[in-house]
Design brief:
The complex is a heterodimer of chains A (190) and B (294). Chain A contains nine helices and no strands. With 190 residues, chain A is an all-alpha fold. Chain A is globular and about 55 Å long. Chain A starts with 7 loop residues before the first helix and ends with a helix. The chains are: A mainly alpha (190), B alpha+beta (294).
């Protein structure tokens, strides 16, 4: 049976039964969700990846406390939120500027991908994402990012954010409107 | 659909959740309405661009790889810790066990000596007994750990081991050894009387002395068997008749020891506390004691 057919709860039970490696399946499913969830809250790519990683490590450590009657995504995002709060408290730093983020990316690229073209593309993408996210109000960011980036259904988003379905729909519509305006403005300017 | 739909419906053109009737109506409207077509295209473009940008910075598998490495590392550390914790009780108990073993060993070896020493005890048997020139009251045990000790007076030596005996020491001597098999005195000028048990051989200035004669000893006779106790004279008349008695007018009177009891105070009885001197006569002296106690 393909792992894609297994529900989150089934995988959780398997991990709890000792199949640690199967936690990788949950990571595969939700790494982008956690990444994009944190993306709308941090402006430092390195921090986004670090906190995403910490979120999964913490989720694994506390997997026993997961209530199977709850959605795994909702539980995971709660952990991500808590890890983020802890991180912000510890670092007590102000949100980084786009320039700083670019610098971070440059430094990390020294050790990894040294292709300058790729680096420039990534840097440009990051700048656009930060700019776009900044146009969205906080409450509409999460549903919109989940919808567009993670291609989640309205119901899945409602479950993950523990919001009413209609609220999710309204927020996504609001985000699209804002993005549409911003896009038009951006195109006019460029 | 002739009228332009509201934007919420228009923007949801790509949503899989849109019901089929709305989708058909929307699509037919879009074919006819270039404004709405342009609006939908702009939203699609914005969303696609945003998605592409996020995908451009998202390194698929990177977080999974890092997190799984961390999880497996932590998991193996945790497993190792559990393994260690499994045997941790040994480390916790080991010092305790070692202490118990040492204590058992100590009790097995050392007490034999101390018990051996403790088998012989020495107890002051008069109120004016002296040990190293210090007065030991009646009944006080003499410590025999640090010998020699100088004894002066009456002392009872007792052995409670396999050889049970008890003898009395009266006089002056220096006790140099007090073990069950060997009690030794030097510079002795004393008498030794067996009180109970087997005959005891003690060493006096290097020579053996067998103490074999049983002699009962009680406290009063032991303290002052050969002494006369001096008590002040007791007035036979009330003080107001004979006048005050001056201390130098008190005349000593010799009383036999047997007339005193062990509970009586020493030999200083104040005149005011004594009863008037009367000849004591036993009223029942000439009457036979009946079987019922009367």
């Amino acid at each position: 049976m393909n792992s894609e057919n297994h529900s989150d709860n089934e995988i959780v039970q398997a991990v709890l039964a000792g199949a640690t490696e199967r936690f990788g399946e949950l990571l595969e499913r939700y790494e982008k969700l956690v990444f994009s969830f944190l993306l709308s809250r941090l402006e430092n790519l390195q921090e986004v990846e670090d906190i995403s990683q910490d979120t999964f490590v913490k989720a694994f450590r506390h997997l026993k406390s997961f209530d199977c009657s709850r959605k795994f995504t909702a539980w995971l995002l709660t952990i991500a939120r808590n890890v983020l709060i802890d991180h912000v408290r510890k670092s007590s730093r102000s949100v980084a500027s786009t320039e700083l983020v670019t610098e971070v990316m440059l430094r990390e690229s020294d050790n990894e991908d040294c292709n300058p073209q790729m680096l420039n593309l990534r840097r440009e993408s990051w700048r656009k994402v930060v700019n776009m996210i900044n146009t969205l109000s906080e409450e509409v960011r999460d549903p919109f990012v989940m919808r567009v980036v993670n291609e989640m259904s309205y119901q899945e988003i409602a479950d993950a954010l523990e919001l009413p379905l209609q609220t999710v729909k309204n927020r996504i519509f609001k985000a699209r409107s804002l993005l549409r305006e911003k896009r038009a403005l951006y195109e006019e300017m460029s | 659909m002739k009228k332009c739909p509201d934007k919420q419906l228009l923007y949801s053109i790509d949503d899989p959740e849109l019901n089929i009737d709305d989708r058909v109506a929307l699509e037919s409207h879009l074919q006819a309405c270039p404004r709405c077509r342009e609006e939908v295209a702009a939203v699609r473009s914005a969303e696609e661009a945003f998605k592409a940008d996020v995908n451009g910075i998202f390194r698929s598998g990177e977080i999974r790889k890092r997190a799984m490495n961390e999880i497996i590392k932590n998991h193996s550390i945790e497993a190792e810790r559990h393994k260690k914790a499994k045997y941790m009780w040994l480390w916790v108990l080991a010092p305790g066990l070692a202490i118990v073993l040492l204590a058992a060993l100590f009790h097995a070896v050392v007490p034999r000596q101390s018990t051996h020493q403790r088998l012989v005890t020495c107890q002051a048997h008069s109120d004016n007994a002296m040990v190293n020139e210090k007065i030991y009251e009646f009944g006080r045990m003499v410590e025999l750990q640090h010998l020699p000790v100088e004894l002066n007076g009456s002392f009872i030596f007792t052995s409670a081991g396999q050889q049970a005996w008890s003898f009395e020491h009266c006089g002056v001597s220096t006790l140099v050894k007090a073990e069950q098999q060997a009690v030794e005195f030097v510079k002795a000028s004393a008498t030794f009387n067996l009180l109970s048990g087997d005959p005891v051989t003690v060493k006096i200035d290097g020579s053996n002395l067998v103490i074999g004669e049983l002699k009962p000893v009680d406290r009063v006779t032991a303290t002052s068997a050969l002494e006369t106790i001096i008590v002040p004279a007791v007035a036979s008349e009330p003080a107001d008749i004979i006048g005050d008695i001056e201390p130098d007018q008190v005349m000593p009177v010799e009383l036999p020891v047997s007339s005193l009891t062990a509970e009586a105070p020493e030999n200083q009885l104040p005149a005011s506390e004594t009863a008037p001197h009367e000849e004591l006569v036993n009223p029942f002296l000439d009457k036979p004691l009946l079987i019922n106690g009367n």
